[in-house]
Design a protein that fits this description.
The protein is an alpha/beta fold. The protein is 43% helix and 16% strand. It has a 7-stranded parallel beta sheet, sandwiched between helices. Helix 3 (67-81) packs parallel to helix 4. The structure holds NADP nicotinamide-adenine-dinucleotide phosphate (NAP).
Length: 245
């Protein structure tokens, strides 16, 4: 129970990697606040599962691109749960667009949800971090190193996120707040459910460990980065891709 007595906020906690992270941090002893956008049913299910297994979790609705909503949600979380030790920013979206199809709306949506929202949640949480410090974990992608056709804007939004991770780590180190990112390759979630099977097979064949990631594969790494075991790691992006890159 490496996070016993700690408080963790997980954005995107209703589905996919975020749901796995919420469950894993709760298993490690943290009280978990799940932030979701619209999928109240899924978020409630994750919190109920955690409760059934003896953990503590609650759900909070907020669009992470809306700084006022995020600020209100985090204030409510801190009031109910106490000072925050872990902020896992997992919420994100992927919109494919080839170079000729990129629109201003698509660019804004990718950068607002994948990049700007990390600024809003970090800012909203700073005043509520425990005095002893804590851990912020962002989620990038292996595509930063090898963007495929149609992924340039998404990959760029995550590349910017990796630079934010490094910059924030530099600024927050004095408060003993570590800031890191975890960068998965294709992971089996709703986000990747529409990828055609031949492409998935190709990706699997290029992955030395011979399979694609499940959300738990990523959640376990997030839990490590959140824990005291990772106390000497900050400003880094951990490529978590089964050796794909
Ligand atoms: N899956 C992959 O292959 C993969 C690979 C590399 C990196 N990633 C990154 O990992 C993260 C999680 O991906 P996933 O595959 O687990 O995605 P997912 O299954 O599609 O789940 C997305 C989550 O983000 C939440 N969300 C989206 N927009 C939001 C907003 N504006 N405000 C608040 N919450 C919002 C959703 O909430 P609702 O349920 O309420 O909609 C949901 O919980 C993302 O940052 C993604 O870019 C994924």
């Amino acid at each position: 129970m490496k996070l016993r007595g700690q408080v963790a906020i997980v954005t995107g906690g209703s589905r996919g990697i975020g749901a796995a992270v919420a469950r894993r941090l709760a298993r490690d002893g943290a009280a978990v606040a799940l932030i979701y956008q619209s999928n109240v049913e899924a978020a409630t299910q994750v919190a109920a599962d955690i409760g059934r297994h003896g953990g503590r979790a609650a759900t909070f609705q907020a669009d992470v691109t809306d700084e006022h909503a995020v600020k209100a949600a985090v204030a409510q979380i801190a009031a109910e749960f106490g000072p925050v030790n872990v902020l896992a920013h997992i919420a994100g979206v992927f919109d494919a667009a080839g170079v000729g199809e990129i629109t201003r709306d698509l660019f804004d949506r990718q950068f607002l949800i994948n990049t700007w929202s990390v600024i809003t949640t970090t800012q909203a949480t700073l005043g509520h971090f425990a005095p002893e410090g804590g851990s912020i974990i962002n989620v990038s992608t292996s595509l930063v190193h090898e963007p495929r056709a149609g992924t340039a804007v998404y990959s760029a939004s995550k590349a910017a996120l990796e630079t934010l991770t490094l910059g924030f780590a530099t600024e927050l180190g004095a408060r003993n707040i570590r800031v890191n990112a975890v960068a998965p390759a294709i992971t089996r979630t709703d986000m990747t459910a529409d990828i055609p099977q031949p492409h998935l097979d190709h990706e699997r064949s290029l992955t030395p460990l011979g399979r694609l990631a499940e959300p738990d594969d990523i959640a376990d790494v997030v839990a490590f980065v959140a824990s005291h075991d990772a106390r000497w790691i900050t400003g880094r992006t951990l490529l978590t891709d089964g050796g794909r890159m």
